[in-house]
Write a structure and sequence with these properties.
about 675 residues, alpha+beta, Calcium-transporting ATPase, cytoplasmic transduction domain A, Rossmann fold, Calcium-transporting ATPase, cytoplasmic domain N, 7-stranded mixed sheet, elongated
Length: about 675
């Protein structure tokens, strides 16, 4: 609880104690009556004294409300909840003065319960803000910069791209980069919501905001601090409230017209019925109708709507951020609740975007020897295909050979190291290297001429080769002009991809579409394996935009099409879709900038989680709207006909607000969605 909240709580307690004491004292000393003989008993304390005494608790609890109402009048911003509370309580005091009742408890009670509700609301908002402020703790205060063999602590803003920083166990990674040396375990919970630690070693990419748990890491920075992941996350969360949903805008417009309308209605209630009674020659009962009008004002205060609706969205965005989902505004959260079609990229979205050797076919020599020749022939290449062949050789991959087809498949690496230290790629064994653009490489290894590449390379060299019908990228290998076999390399499907698609359908998605630039057979194989409804393959970035345009024309009026992607080529499509969702951990900066929602751990399971969070939040928003307006209208009618008194008015205002705020806080809980 903040200092300000504590002060308000003290005022509430003091006022409540003073009010109870005054109520008891008034019963004993302030009421007039008659004795058993019918004689009038005069009050021991006269009415003016009670007025002064009651004003002490009234001003103790309500001085700030009166002050805000007065400032609002001066600034010509009259119609707000402070004005309504001030008019209602001052009016109640005026009625007590006119009637000379000496009892001002209703005016104090209205202020007391209103302040109690405001305190509760302030605490609830603070609780939801704390979840986001906890996220702010991922921003490191310093970085350990390595210069001339020394390590000095500097402000992260002073570290330039390409510098070497040192991160010790227990410290936060301050800037995105690549590990130069060291091996460690990272706690990524603050970024991704994932509690399982992540193992990292040399050449692994690392993002800022993670906590280094074990070993010392030397990192070469790849971004400036302001462009690093941690800074972008905080910017996205801090600016999320600036993009309001249609529901929030409706409530703002509603309150703008509603408050003046109810003030006019209260004035009409106070004047018109008494005037009609006066014209009809009856007692106008001014005091009774003014009391009803004041009760009407207290009931009409729109606090429950004005507070609980933005709080619901704020809590939903805060809960999502704790789960590693960054939503850039409540308008996008509202849109996510209406997702019916999900279009997605393949590479990096439903697959890891990491090429691995999947099998070796038609090999005329030992499979490991074939891989060794291929790895050395490709040792100077930085192409992802070449890198995957080099990794496969260095890992000391074991092979399971199908005795019927002769095809060899990697054995799961249980019981052996993922990297075999006895294996190295010795570039001294490699002689001349000729790279044939778009075809492959011809290199001399141990005196032998190794040709490694696609069908075009084999045709170019006049080497007869075997066709491969397996899905993936086929790399043919020939040694000294003789065909030796081919290696099949494929992108690895993310383990959760199939379950992710299944959960999307369970969350209400009616159509899933894969848009990819890959070959048709590769795309269809992946789609069938994970359960995608429709596949559009061999698309250029411009073709993806056209495909999304067609999908947009096919969807229903109140339905939303979301596109999920990660690459720089996905940025135009992310912008064109109704809702863009980017994979944030490995996704490009352009994709993250263009997207409306960012998944920080690249897990496709989070797509359905986004939908479920959004639908829960919108369900809470509509519950609060219907509940608050329904209760208000009922109590307004009861107040206008004289059934509701000031105490019921207090419930209709403060009670409804407290219930709506409690309901809004439920949006923070997203773990089970």
């Amino acid at each position: 609880m903040t200092k300000k909240q504590k002060k308000v709580l003290i005022r509430i307690i003091l006022t409540a104690v003073m009010m109870v004491v005054l109520m008891i004292a008034y019963r004993l000393l302030g009421e007039e009556g008659t004795d058993s003989l019918g004689n009038t008993i005069q009050a021991k304390v006269k009415e003016p004294v009670w007025f002064i005494l009651y004003m002490i608790p009234y001003l103790t609890i309500g001085y700030d409300i009166l002050k805000k109402a007065f400032k609002g009048i001066l600034n010509r911003q009259v119609f707000d909840e402070n004005f309504l509370m001030a008019i209602a309580t001052v009016g109640a005091i005026a009625i007590a003065l006119v009637n000379k009742s000496g009892d001002y408890t209703e005016a104090i009670a209205v202020m007391l319960f209103y302040q109690t509700g405001e305190l509760f609301q302030s605490y609830a908002v603070g609780k939801s803000r704390k979840n986001i402020s906890d996220l702010m703790d991922i921003r490191p205060d310093s970085a350990n910069l390595e210069t001339d063999g020394d390590v000095i602590s500097v402000d992260p803003d002073e570290v330039s791209v390409g510098s070497i920083i040192v991160v010790k166990p227990g410290e936060k990674v301050p800037i995105d980069g690549v590990i130069v040396s060291g091996r460690s375990t990272l706690n990524t919970a603050a970024l991704t919501g994932e509690s399982i630690p992540r193992e990292v070693s040399e050449e692994d990419e690392i993002i800022s905001g993670c906590i280094n748990m074990t070993g010392v890491l030397r990192i070469r920075t790849t971004k400036e601090f302001g462009e690093s992941t941690v800074s972008k996350i905080l910017d996205l969360v801090e600016n999320s409230s600036s993009k309001k949903s249609r529901s929030e805008n409706f409530i703002s417009r509603f309150a703008k017209y509603y408050t003046p309308a109810v003030c006019i209605g209260a004035l009409a209630l106070a004047l018109i019925p008494p005037l009609f009674l006066l014209i009809g020659g009856k007692d106008p009962m001014w005091g009774s109708w003014v009391y009803r009008a004041l009760t009407f004002l207290v009931i009409s205060c729109p606090c429950a709507l004005v507070i609980s609706i933005p709080l619901s969205f704020f809590a939903g965005i805060g809960g999502a951020s704790r789960a590693g989902i960054l939503i850039k505004g409540s308008n996008y959260l509202e849109a996510a609740a209406k997702i019916k079609t999900v279009a997605m990229d393949k590479t990096g979205t439903m697959t890891k975007g990491v090429f691995e050797v999947g099998s070796i076919h038609k090999s005329c020599i030992d499979n490991d020897k074939l891989l060794e020749f291929a790895a050395h022939a490709e040792c100077y290449s930085s192409h992802p295909i070449a890198k995957s062949i080099q990794r496969a050789y260095l890992s000391g991959m074991l092979w399971r050979v199908d005795v019927v087809t002769g095809e060899a498949f990697p054995v799961p690496d249980e019981g052996r190291k993922s990297d075999d230290p006895s294996r190295i790629i010795d570039k001294s064994r490699v002689g001349s290297v000729e790279e044939i653009g778009g075809n492959g490489v011809v290199a001399e290894v141990d005196g032998s001429k190794i040709a490694i590449g696609n069908n075009k390379l084999m045709d170019h060299l006049g080497i007869e080769f075997s066709e491969c019908h397996h899905t993936g990228t086929v790399v043919h290998v020939a040694i000294d002009g003789k065909y030796s076999g081919h290696i099949v390399i494929s992108d690895v499907i993310k383990p959760s991809a199939g379950e992710a698609v299944s959960r999307m359908h369970r969350a209400g998605v009616t159509k899933t579409v894969m848009l990819t630039g890959d070959a048709q057979n590769v795309a269809e194989a992946v789609a069938s394996q994970i359960g995608i409804d429709e596949v559009l393959s061999e698309l250029l970035p411009g073709d993806k935009v056209n495909a999304v345009e067609n999908l947009l024309s096919e969807k229903g009026k109140n339905e939303v099409l979301a596109f999920v992607g990660d690459g720089i080529n996905d940025a135009p499509v992310l912008s064109r879709a109704d809702l863009g969702i980017a994979m944030g951990a490995l996704g490009s900066d352009a994709a993250i900038e263009a997207a409306d929602i960012v998944l920080m751990d690249d897990d496709p399971l989070k797509i359905s989680k986004v939908i479920n969070i959004a639908r829960k939040c919108m369900r809470i928003v509509y519950e609060n709207i219907y509940f608050a307006i329904g209760i208000k209208l009922l109590c307004l009618v009861l107040g206008a006909v004289g059934i509701a008194n000031m105490w019921l008015a207090i419930f209709a205002d403060v009670g409804v607000m407290v219930i709506a705020v409690l309901n809004a806080i439920r949006a923070l809980s997203v773990k089970r969605l």
